[in-house]
Design a protein that fits this description.
Layout lengths: L9 E2 L11 E8 L3 E7 L4 E4 L4 E6 L4 E10 L2 E12 L7 E3 L2 E12 L1 H16 L9 H12 L9 H13 L2
Antiparallel strand pairs: 1-4, 2-3, 2-5, 2-9, 3-6, 4-5, 6-7, 7-9, 8-9
C-alpha cells in the first residue's frame, strides 16, 4: 500500500528511527472531496508523493489523530477520526486504512457528530495547556468507551495528566 524508502524521507532529526520501524500514514487532500489529515501528532518524517498526496511517519509509541472525510454528489460519505498509538516493528496491531503497518487504536469515532465531539475534546484538553500527544492512552480509551454508549467522557484534568507523566517516567 505505502512504499516508503528510507532514503526518500525527509527526516526532522538526524537521529530519527529507521523508516521500516516507523508507522506511515498516507494523507490526501482534494478540496471538498477527500480530506485526510493529522489533527495532532509529532511527525518524524515526510514524503511528498504529488501535489495532493503525502506520507507522514511516526516513531513507535507516539500518538496521533488521523481524520478522514470524503464526500460525493449527495454530501458527506465518510467522517472518521482515529487516535492511534504507533507500534514498534513486529508488534501486534490493528489494521487501519492508509496506515502502515497499522496501530493501536485508542479511540475511534464514526460520523460527523461524533468526530466533531472528539475534536471538541481535543480542543478542551489543549485549552488547559496539555499537548494532545502527551495525553494518557487510558484517557483516549475512556473517551472512546463513553462516546460509544452516548455518554460524555470525563474531562482530562491537570492532576490526572501529572500522575500519568510521573507513572510513565518510572515505568520501563
Amino acid at each position: 500500500m505505502i512504499g516508503v524508502a528510507a532514503t526518500s524521507l525527509r527526516s526532522g532529526s538526524p537521529h530519527a528511527p529507521a523508516a521500516d520501524a516507523l508507522t506511515h500514514v498516507e494523507l490526501t487532500w482534494v478540496e471538498k472531496e477527500i480530506e485526510f489529515w493529522i489533527r495532532f501528532g509529532r511527525e518524524t518524517a515526510e514524503q511528498i508523493l504529488d501535489r495532493r498526496r503525502r506520507v507522514v511517519s511516526f516513531a513507535p509509541d507516539s500518538v496521533f489523530a488521523f481524520v478522514r472525510w470524503t464526500s460525493n454528489d449527495y454530501g458527506t460519505a465518510l467522517s472518521r477520526l482515529d487516535i492511534v498509538r504507533a507500534v514498534s516493528a513486529g508488534e501486534r496491531c490493528q489494521t487501519l486504512p492508509f496506515v502502515s503497518p497499522g496501530g493501536d487504536i485508542l479511540l475511534r469515532a464514526d460520523g460527523w457528530p461524533k468526530v466533531e465531539r472528539v475534536l471538541q475534546l481535543i480542543d478542551a484538553i489543549e485549552a488547559r495547556g496539555i499537548a494532545a500527544i502527551d495525553v494518557s492512552p487510558d484517557h483516549w480509551r475512556h473517551a472512546h468507551n463513553r462516546l460509544a454508549v452516548g455518554e460524555a467522557p470525563r474531562a482530562y484534568e491537570a492532576q490526572q495528566h501529572r500522575a500519568f507523566l510521573l507513572r510513565r517516567r518510572i515505568m520501563p
